[in-house]
Fold U6 small nuclear RNA (adenine-(43)-N(6))-methyltransferase.
Amino acid sequence: MLLRVTGPLSLALVLMALNKSMHPRNRYKDKPPDFVYLASKYPEFQKHVHTTLTGRVTLNFKDPEAVRALTCTLLKEDFGLTIEIPLERLIPTVPLRLNYIHWVEDLIGGQGNPRRGIDIGTGASCIYPLLGATMNGWFFLATEVDDICFNYAKKNVEQNHLAELIKVVKVPQKTLLMDALKEECIVYDFCMCNPPFFANQLEAKGVNSRNSRRPPPSSVNTGGVTEIMAEGGELEFVKNIIHDSLQLKKRLRWYSCMLGKKCSLAPLKDELRKQGVPKVTHTEFCQGRTMRWALAWSFYDDVPVPSPPCKKRKLEKARKPLTFTVLKPTVAELQTQAPSIGCTDTSPTESVSVWLEKILTDLKVLHKRVPCGEAELSLFLTAVENTWVHTRQKRREQHRHLRELPRAQPASTCSTEMDTLTPEEPSTEISADPQHSNGKETNEQQHPKKCADVPMESPTEQNEAPISSPSNPETVQQFLFKCLVNMKVEDSDVVVEMHWVEGQNKDLMNQLCTCLKNSLFRQVANPT
């Protein structure tokens, strides 16, 4: 039966595991919860699942009891944990909390070995310590200021037989790390915190704090006053943790907090920078339409620092080559034409390569073949000047001039008119264009004696001195960019990849890629 969800929660949110931004180790990333199966196994969850006449399974995420039933069911089914949460306190979502646990694993260098952590404001569910202890055998000091949350947290620890790993302590209001650790001499590996997001009731209701263009929240907002609100909101709350860390320093290897607002991230990083904290990193947690951000810092010089997600994306983008595909019919036509330019080996990659080499030569882009894998061909390119910019406009301008030539001209004006037809591109490309050929042919037929001997200026003669081509394009000192072009056969097509090596501007490589692709296709459409 296909799982579908309607109502307040969109399908994308329920199937949060399909979101590619979830942590790679999150068990729900590639295997979303099977609501039908869970409903058949857990009667308490089944009460909140409804099947419509069309066979769709629905769950009302605006109902706190339905949200609580889902959280308790997932913890029981996937982690063997039995917990109780009062409706008037914060009900956590399991996949989002798992993201935070896995990121802490990344911070402290793995899932193994006994580790010690602190959960600031553990909540009634005590979910971070329960997950950390169950999954990794971590020891936790879990602090709580709210009486109801404290009592439920202790009960949840005890009924899961984890009291040896998790110590829940009641602390005074506004207590963060200093007071909780004043009698401790243990060095902790990390601390975690899900701070109160809001500064007041209006902000908690989204007044003046939520972009009007954003869709409304998909699920109900539960939580006690101390869980969702604090003086100054999450920004001041985390700043207080930073100030505690400046006194504790190496008592913890990593300090971390989860943020509900992206706008809180930059000022907190600025604060850490002002205080001279040596190691700082951040990440994103994503669950459907819900986004959270996490910040971590350390005073240790030897801790590995995971790369922030933005840097990872930039690196992935930098590594990703520009590609285009020469389809099988186009490859076949290029193979047919290859002998006309002296190519005896008409294999698919060789045919595409020799035509690319001809285009590059015409464009005065330095290139040479380099060793590569079997059934592939590679060219190393060095672009010294931008000879491909606006080639299409230049070609159209030349054709327009040709079409506007008068049918008869005095001999004295023939040379002047022809000077305006100086090509901006290599003559091989222009002669390949039927429109240009027809225009030129008509002109020569009309004036066989007057204009036949008028010399055409070459682009080099008209504009600048020719580029001296060094024997090795890899050794050129001044250049726009260098790249590697790789050609390989995939399903009878030839895939062309352009890998950035170095240079001034990657947009120039993008322009050249488009020019090469269009020139190849023009060659097939308008063979010489």
Observations:
- Confidence is low (pLDDT under 50) at residues 1-18, 198-202, 410-470.
- The two ends are 60 Å apart (CA to CA).
- The longest helix spans residues 506-525.
- The CA atoms of residues 318 and 500 lie 8 Å apart.
